[in-house]
Structure to design on (471 residues):
């Protein structure tokens, strides 16, 4: 197989403007046909569930939201990732004030034209149903054009994620059905070609947002936050590969659609928590309009034939996700210093830290810094070094007097497998900036009291014991 590498890199601050700077490139190369994958559950592919929901919609809060939460929790425990989910929040129902409802999410809703929310479109409308899990099981067993789909993501340290999707069309080869001679001319005309569309949906896990229907804050998973680049389209013959690379800049603004309680471009609230971002890559077959026998299959829409996340990609490649084995914390000159010890046989290529001074589930602005990686260099056959084995990462976060620091590490190994560490508070509490140079009379007084107390204890300890054990 011929590997294709694209290296377009665009940077932006973490709190970027609402305009997303992105670039999408597609490259095809002739490769050796690979064998079909063994997908989880014996399915033919990973189906995708596109859910249309709203935090201000009563039926959504009692139907689609509980289902998505349950499926999200199931995926957390299943490394095979048998399916993917994207939730597109709408203004439907109640006060119409879902803070995560965007114009892009409304555009996707209009693409399917459902009669309302909640709604589930499985495999691009192959099934339209509110019973999500049973629909996934049905869709996963249907016949599709055979592909492999991989996707990776890395954080570039400057407010953007770099996403790379690799699609291989396995094909069937030209094998006309001699029992149906009338179909042979069409087989010759079509050849063995996949006309594809690739969408790169950026989702955020566990968004902490206000629900007017619930009357308070809720956690809602798999929330659509935008696309990385425009949909990529093209054609692949059997045994060809397409690579799509795009940059997604973390937005600081959101465009609420018409019908929203606060329409138009607004500051994003809740803001994106960068450590919760994940890409969902989906490939659609532009010639597949198959319809399920289940209720309400959509007419005339292209069907999804595979999907992937970074976690499913690592599972399919039998790669272990990189992990943090230990973190050492020290305070020096008013800075919170972090040293992380990583574990991954492919080494560590990049790492960043996201942090804030408010809380572990903060919905405002998170800051970011690059983590300096050191270790034994890992290089390819041409001498190009791309990762460090036995890696340690160091970073220094500025302390704010009287404020705790909440931080999360994000990192990728030498094969671009991306992972994050749980959010934690530095030293379990407040970081206080050091006193100005000179004598610290408070500290001297505290030390003097300790010395006096130790002396008094010594005198007492040498006195004869006159009590009983139970005194």
């Amino acid at each position: 197989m011929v590997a294709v590498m694209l290296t377009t890199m665009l940077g932006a601050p973490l709190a970027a403007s609402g305009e997303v700077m992105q670039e999408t490139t597609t490259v095809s190369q002739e490769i050796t046909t690979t064998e079909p994958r063994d997908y989880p559950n014996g399915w033919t592919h990973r189906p995708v569930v596109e859910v249309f929901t709203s935090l201000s919609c009563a039926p959504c809060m009692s139907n689609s939201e509980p289902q998505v939460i349950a499926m999200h929790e199931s995926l957390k425990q299943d490394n095979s990732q048998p399916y993917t989910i994207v939730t597109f929040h709408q203004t439907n129902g109640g006060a119409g004030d879902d803070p995560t409802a965007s114009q892009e999410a409304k555009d996707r809703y209009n693409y399917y034209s459902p009669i309302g929310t909640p709604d589930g479109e499985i495999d691009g409308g192959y099934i339209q149903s509110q019973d999500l899990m049973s629909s996934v099981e049905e869709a996963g067993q249907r016949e599709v054009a055979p592909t492999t789909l991989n996707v990776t993501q890395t954080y570039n340290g400057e407010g953007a994620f770099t996403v790379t999707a690799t699609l291989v069309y396995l094909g069937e080869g030209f094998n006309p059905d001699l029992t149906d001679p009338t179909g042979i001319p069409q087989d010759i005309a079509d050849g063995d070609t996949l006309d594809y569309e690739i969408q790169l949906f950026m989702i955020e896990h566990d968004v902490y947002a206000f629900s007017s229907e619930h009357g308070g804050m809720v956690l809602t998973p798999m929330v659509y936050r935008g696309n990385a680049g425009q949909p990529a389209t093209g054609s692949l013959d059997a045994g060809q590969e397409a690579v799509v690379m795009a940059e997604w800049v973390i937005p600081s603004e959101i465009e609420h659609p018409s019908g929203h309680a606060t329409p138009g471009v607004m500051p994003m609230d809740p803001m994106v928590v960068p450590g919760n971002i994940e890409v969902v890559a989906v490939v659609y077959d532009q010639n597949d309009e198959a319809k399920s026998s289940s209720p309400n299959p959509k007419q005339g829409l292209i069907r999804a034939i595979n999907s992937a996340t970074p976690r499913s990609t690592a599972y399919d490649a039998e790669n272990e996700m990189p992990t943090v084995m230990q973190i050492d914390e020290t305070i020096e000159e008013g800075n919170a210093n972090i040293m992380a010890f990583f574990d991954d046989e492919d080494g560590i290529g990049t790492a960043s830290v996201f942090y804030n001074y408010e809380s572990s589930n903060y919905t405002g602005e998170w800051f970011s810094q690059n983590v300096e990686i050191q270790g034994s260099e890992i290089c390819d056959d041409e001498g190009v070094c791309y990762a460090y084995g036995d890696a340690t990462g160091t970073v220094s976060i500025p302390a704010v007097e009287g404020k705790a620091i909440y931080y999360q590490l994000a990192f990728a190994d030498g094969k671009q497998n991306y992972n994050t560490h749980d959010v934690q508070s530095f030293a379990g509490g407040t970081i206080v900036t050091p006193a100005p140079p000179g004598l610290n009379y408070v500290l001297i007084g505290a030390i003097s009291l300790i010395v006096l107390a130790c002396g008094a204890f010594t005198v007492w300890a040498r006195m004869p014991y006159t009590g009983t054990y139970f005194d």
Observations:
- The first strand starts at residue 25 and ends at 30.
- Helices lie at 58-62, 64-76, 103-112, 132-139, 184-190, 310-316, 441-461.
- The first helix runs from residue 58 to 62.
- The domain at 25-316 is CATH 2.60.40.10 (Immunoglobulin-like).
